[in-house]
């Protein structure tokens, strides 16, 4: 059972989460005309009156960009202001996840983006590990990742997640933890809601933007860390068969953080994952503001 934070933001105001309601005729509910964000936050281990948020500016920028696909001009600064106030009103006491949602809030049955009201809502819930840090099993999904010429994959559009939901359930019902989706060219794209990396011969490899992936913020963080550490990195198409013989495979995402993969289909991967663990440990230290080199990635939100 999810434990939701007590205060939500909807219809331009803060209110108790239990009272935050929208109409059954809401346009986005029927047509997937929304865009989501997701942020991780933790209580500051050294100050009970502060919260640490990972890459707040970047998340707000991406949601603002996603909103533009819905013909909604919502400045990043406005999103940030709501999220900061949301944190201050809720005063979380354990690790949590924030879900901002931009959506067509008007009531109507025409599938369109013009002449329909748009809004922002925000809620949150307590969240520890989304995927097991000891390793997950993955299957290759029978569901294909959408193409950017059929859906704007540079945004986190809610309608796109039907493929993710189908893939995730297919994986779970066939005995796996997670799904890996291929694109229309048969190349590895991403997991159901995470980017994917492989390690081969000391090189860190991940599908590029031309492989119909989401421009993941944790993905970007991992690439930056690897380059700063002098780890050879490359963004290129990845074949399905490479997953089976990789030295390491891991998934990245705001909810998943860095999650090692222990098995793909019926191929068991090496249990020794030095690069994965190094990056995972480093990212955790950064989110807890223990790494001075990347302190600008963490925003400190103080309670009033």
List keywords for this structure.
D-amino Acid Aminotransferase, Chain A, domain 2, D-amino Acid Aminotransferase, Chain A, domain 1, 26% helix, six-stranded antiparallel sheet, 17 strands, 304 residues, nine-stranded mixed sheet
Account of the protein in words:
The protein has 304 residues and is an alpha+beta fold. It folds into 2 domains: 120 residues, Aminotransferase class 4, branched-chain amino acid transferase, N-terminal domain (D-amino Acid Aminotransferase, Chain A, domain 1); 152 residues, D-amino Acid Aminotransferase, Chain A, domain 2 (Alpha-Beta Barrel), CATH 3.20.10. Strands 8, 9, 10, 11, 12, 13, 14, 15 and 16 form a 9-stranded mixed beta sheet that branches. Strands 3, 4, 5, 6, 7 and 17 form a 6-stranded antiparallel beta sheet that branches. Strand 14 and strand 15 form a beta hairpin. The longest helix is centred in the N-terminal third of the chain and has 15 residues. The radius of gyration is 19 Å and the shape is globular.
Average pLDDT score = 95
CATH class of the largest domain: Alpha Beta
Number of helices: 7
**Structural class determined from secondary elements:** alpha+beta
Low-confidence stretches: none
CATH architectural name of the largest domain = Alpha-Beta Barrel
Percent of residues in beta strands? 25-35%
Helix content: 25-40%
Radius of gyration: 19 Å
Helix and strand pattern: EEHEEEHHEEEHEEEEHEHEEEHE
- CATH homologous superfamily annotation of the largest domain: D-amino Acid Aminotransferase, subunit A, domain 2
